[in-house]
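CORE FACILITY INTAKE
Project code: CF-77B
Contact: R.S. (postdoc)
Sample description: multi-component assembly, two entities in total
Requested service: structural model of the whole complex
Turnaround: standard
Below are the sequence entries exactly as provided by the requester. Do not edit them.
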Amino acid sequence: MQKRQKRFEVLEQRAVNKDGFIKEWDEVGLVAMDSPYDPKPGLKIENGKVVEMDGIPCAEFDMIDTFIANHCIDVNVAAEAMAIDSLEFAKKLVDINVSGAEIKRLVPGLTPAKILDVLKKMNVVELMMAMQKLRCRKTPANQAHITNVKDTPALLAADAAEGSYRGFQELETTVGIARYAPMNAIALLIGGQVGCRGTLTQCAVEEAMELQMGMKGLTAYAETVSVYGTDQVFVDGDDTPWSKAFLASAYASRGIKMRFTSGTGSEVQMGYANKKSMLYLEIKCIMITKGAGVQGLQNGSISCIGVPGAVPGGIRAVLAENVATVLLDLEVASGNDQTFTHSPIRNTARMLMQFLPGTDYVFSGYSGVPNYDNMFAGSTHDSDDFDDMLVLQRDLQCDMALRPVTEEQIIAVRNKAARAMQAVFQEVGFPAITDEEVEAATYAHGSKDMPDRNQPEDLRAIEEFLKSGKTGLDIVRALHKHGFQDVAESVLGMLKQKVSGDYLHTSAIVDENFNVKSAINDRNDYMGPGTGYRLEGERWELLKNIPQAISPEDI
Amino acid sequence: MKLTEEMLRQIITEVVGQMAGGAAAPASAAAVDTDKPLDFIEKGPAQAGSNPKEVVIAVPPGFGTTPTKTIIDIPHSVVLAEVAAGIEEEGLTARFVRNYQTADVAFLAHSAAQLSGSGVGIGILSRGTSVIHQKDLAPLQNLELFPQAPLVEAETFRAIGKNAAKYAKGENPNPVPVKNDPMARPRYQGLAALLHNKEVQFLDPQKKILEVVQG
């Protein structure tokens, strides 16, 4: 081209054109939800056993097929459910006169290909309708990522406190350097309770360490227990569906809440999609989760979002996988947790798919820190977008579980969390958090405002902490000794949850009075206008009143 | 955006520009033919080493031939030279193996650590994703992880080699500074999936792990 058209020159510079887009490649599974290689639905049952599923006889089942056939498919309802035409089934999902309970009675009788076939009949608005009706907990909630690139503890505690104060019921951290895990977990445990009692915290790292931290009481739940849709990817991770089920039972036996994680794109990202579409493989992951008896799942592509995000219909498939999760009556932590685009327009459009219908956790999680500090490699939205989210809630009268705050309130909780962390460090033998660090963490935008710590000394102290056998109770004791009685009580309250076990129910969150709210006592009963979760009354009054709104009396 | 040649060229220019900006960058991608295959000679099955002064580096089968450079176009010959230089600066030696069994960076690095006389190994995927591992850790643990291939630059590879050697000597070094770019995924993940699907096509469980030397 010798002469450029000026509009095209402008378009070329737009953020969206920095994104990577890939054409479909069916042969390796680079396709969202409609591969010619996806199997056709079908199920044969003899003597109460699945003998053929989606065209594959049981003699040819791979390990995932075997697990799903034996542990997920409900043979008692299968004949009835499989006989329903996929289009009719899809209509039931959006029909306000068909209850969620009736649908969830039938779904366990469906095969992976049948669930795929039903979801393929639905557009994104219909999928959102299904989510609104079928998610397990009535009240939507939200999760935040709290991390920083320096793994600096006072800032982690301060950010955790701000996150829970703003309304995030769950906080998730991870590490820049793996060996920092226990220290980061403690920062969230303390900071989370300072901001709001009952906040659930986790630290996503290697699975054995993650379980160990849960058992020590440094975390309240776990989420990063990954499952995959093809045998080879499972084997590459040194796992099987049975080993993951075993790990799940290890958590359950210690009274620790947990959910699995999966997502479209992971199999093709790891090179073994067996020519199947991303959504078909993800449905298998969801069925493995159900079969393992786990209460919930984090999905919505998660860390592979750049893959479905790069192919046609990918973001629709991501919503469809969230819907498949609630169809199987599982808690859904619905993604929106990783950057997938340079374009703010694409970014928000993708998030509306979960925000508008509401899910158990709309984000999993929202970046409670600036994205440069987000060690999950960035989330769709970050701490700089808080006010946009509050306005979106107010514009649409739609709840993503955040609340308006003032600068004074945030300074106060950040400072308290950093000081509590300083006290605990002194007691458990970690290298001191200086007053300078407390001050910096209180007022920081992010880790760029924090002084550097001596990392080798931190890491050595963490190693000793792990060897010492200290637990969450030592944290409680340290807080109490240094005058943080209320925080000590809250941390103890979280430890007690593991004894009572009520928060092991599906979609459980813990409120500020340590009451558990789950799919059992806060069941989603949506059946059209006037039912289900409504943003109204006291809560709506709270969300209406953002500080920047001008009041008529003030003029 | 489709990955056009023009865009690749732009990325290369940016990367080379960044590298030129860092005075310490010891090797320049500009000086090397990035398409030239690595001259690797396979020497038969890799043996567990007994030399406590070695660090083993494991690469997947396609490394150096298909492709010949990382996701930000650092030639694989430069990658290996930098890692080896980092190790040698600490007075230790580098030994290379090609693992035909896995293209998973954690297992790749873990296999290197198992073979290493010092118990410390490094795994490097063709696109640049890297791990420093120790033989007594669980496969999915690590000493240091460099998960974002577009941020692993030539000098990072030297620092990886240097730190691996320090761990091998029983030291507790400052970890290589962690980098994070939230926009690496939107730009590169689709491409990374393409590259990885090519990478796994070269796996061959019959061949296991072979000792390699550069010709």
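Facility notes:
- Chain B touches chain A through 43 residues (CB under 8 Å).
- The radius of gyration of chain B is 16 Å.
Invoice: internal transfer
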